Amino acid sequence: MIDLENFADRVGIARDYLDCNGQYTRITREARLATLGAMGYDLSNEQALQERMLKEEITPYQEILDPVCVIRMGEHPFIMVRTPEKVSEAAVLRWTLTLENGDVHEGVTPLDEIEIADYEEVQGRVYDTRRFILTNELPMSLGCLPLGYHSFKVVIEDGVMHTQSIEQLLIMTPLRCYVPEPMMAGQKMWGVSVQLYSLRSRVNWGVGDFHDLRLLLKVVHDRGGQFVGLNPLHAGYPANPDPDMISPYSPSSRRWLNIIYISVPEVPEFMSCDAAREFTGTQEFAKKLRSLRDRDYVDYKAVLDLKLKVLDMVFDYNRMTDRRSNRGKKFLEFVRQGGESLLNMATYDAMQREFYDEGINAWGWMKFPKQYHDCQGPFVEKWRETHKEKVYFYCYLQFLAQEQLEEAYQSARDDGMVLGTYRDLAVGVSEGSCDVWSDTDNIYRGSAEIGAPPDPLGPLGQSWGLAPMEPHALRRSRYSQLIELFRANMKSCGALRIDHAAGLYRFWWVPVDHKPTEGAYIYNNIHDWLGILALESQRNKCLIIAEDLGTIPMELRIALKESGALSYKLFFGEKAADGGYIAPQDYEPQALSAVTTHDMPTLMGWWSDYDLRLGKELGIYNDENVKQIGDERHWNKQRILDSLHGLGSIGDEVPRRAADIPEMTPDLIIGIERHMCRGSCALFSSQIEDWTGVLKPVNVPGTFREYPNWRRKLTVNVEDLDKDNFVKELTRAMTQAREEASNRRH
């Protein structure tokens, strides 16, 4: 009889955890076993399960080396080598190290000179685990092992036995993530967060785009800001007409970009395409654009249909694959560097578009015709070859998106902005996504969803519809997808926010057909993940911001701080034991602070209780909930005013009694933002909705079709932001307050 509870321990399924209130919570046996099944273990067939367990148990000893070894600067540079206990005294270890730059170093070390750190009997045979210190064997000219991704392999020889190991990816990483010099010197900065699609402008096609981003970056920097924080820019589903498939936090691929953000008029090929210019020059087209721009909510399908129609005209396969032109060379180099991942993304999009045209509801790869379910199968390969121009069209769209994002970022950096764009890495991808379809390493698990255990924001727990990555499969793949994921999202930005940073340590798995309360935590290798994150951060000169809200174990908070990642502090969540609000000067300095987020009401909506009235309309709250939350909120408003007045962030222009301020006022907004900017956090992020008095939220958690999430636009064109007197006054106050905070440090 297999002890499944102990086996669940071995594969990293937690038995318990401390909830957000610090209360000990035990995970049920049923939930742990359901999660074990979701990881891919067949609990219904004991013999097959036993065989798999035995294979997984012996494999590390047969392979001698782990598939990957991550060593962080300052750690003992041990490489674990597993050998049979009984070997000849003459046994030697022949090793080969191939550095990332291609240099090869080889050596021979007597086995008896390598320390035995542990031993274990496995399936009737005793094995030693030895600690090989590679740096002791390297030539003096090399010094220490350089940072980067290296290859290491060994052969054990004892005159009779000749056993070769697998090839190990040896990753040498820095201890800390990158931090820009001005921040190291104590400069405290502000920026603004925006949902890119929500931007209005006089020239966009009904959705905020990379041209609008460039304009916003300049406005913010001219007013004293140093960054613009963005929603995830991950690839969506351009062929899927379903308005429910638009969330930036449930993408098709986290390694590629959402092509809806392409500014068509800025595409070089558009400028030289007579057919496209003639089509877009008509009164009918202008009327269509006005309609799309004037709408209060983004019409994703109409915008994409229009952009794809014009870009179809613009794309010339022969011209873009002509190596004789600089443009062709640049595009083909982009395709070469994108490799299999780019071709898979483009193939997925092209296929999905064709299947929809044929009347197939191909919302995810599971709904493709069966022969196309295997991304590496012959049918997909044949389809890709037969439809090469269509596939290259979607490669071209990714090329344009990356080009325009880079241009926006580079213009900000050239203008002197310290961070420029600040991107957001979503937690995962949906089960029907391209990333799952093209997962040749078998890392993603469609039999579970990522979520969260019960907490005040979700008393019944949460399940987000995202496929989790199985940590052991990820490690067996040498973290290839994790490395590519971090690298791709650190392009064209000065900072990267890790959404739900708790996932660096563990994810809450919710097995299919189970309630979110019936899930369990599965641990990731935080040491390895943080090491790789730090390496890519330093290489890409990208600051890391860890969204560490919610149920976060203390060991993760400590590890994140030691790695140099910024924490995340929300004004509404930073409360003292007596219920009052903690002064921002007492916040953790190694952090980004904000008043609200995209999952919360705007300041205008919160103060006026609009979110409560909306919640009641949507069925989220009943009369009792509204009264209870409203009473508590009135008390909180008074505590906010007490804190602002007490610390001199507002004066007599703002009443001292909350009852005298039924609606949010410009003076109070300026006071709150000034209050935060005087704080100790390295960064402060203002919400652009609070600049323009937006009442409605962009997202209402817990709703699906009840509310138009991820569609609501802003109320002011980006070209007019810097002309607004309130914006001028607000940004002036923030800049002065940040300068005060910077000087206070010295």
Fold and architecture overview:
This protein is globular. The strands form six sheets. It has an eight-stranded parallel beta sheet. Strands 3, 5, 6, 9, 10 and 11 form a six-stranded mixed beta sheet that branches. It has 746 residues and is of the alpha/beta class. It has 23 helices and 26 strands.
Beta-sheet strand percentage? 15-25%
Helix content: 25-40%
Oligomer: single chain
Flag low-confidence runs: none
Concise description?
This protein has 746 residues and is of the alpha/beta class. Helices cover 37% and strands 18% of the residues. It is globular.
Attribute tags:
746 residues, 8-stranded parallel beta sheet, 6-stranded mixed beta sheet, 26 strands, 37% helix, 18% strand, globular
Describe the secondary-structure layout.
Blueprint: H1 4-10, E1 16-18, E2 24-26, H2 29-38, H3 46-63, E3 68-72, E4 78-84, E5 92-98, E6 104-110, E7 115-122, E8 125-133, E9 148-157, E10 162-164, E11 168-173, H4 181-184, E12 189-194, H5 210-222, E13 227-230, E14 234-235, E15 253-257, H6 268-271, H7 274-280, H8 283-294, H9 300-314, H10 317-320, H11 326-357, H12 378-386, H13 388-414, E16 420-425, E17 429-430, H14 434-437, E18 448-452, E19 462-467, H15 471-476, H16 480-489, E20 495-498, E21 506-511, E22 520-523, H17 526-540, E23 543-546, H18 554-562, E24 567-570, E25 591-594, H19 603-607, H20 610-617, H21 623-646, H22 666-677, E26 683-687, H23 725-745
Parallel strand pairs: 3-11, 12-13, 12-26, 13-16, 16-20, 20-23, 24-25, 25-26
Antiparallel strand pairs: 1-2, 4-8, 5-6, 5-9, 7-8, 9-10, 9-11, 14-15, 17-19, 18-19, 18-21, 21-22
Helix pairs in contact: 5-13, 7-9, 11-13, 16-17, 20-21, 22-23
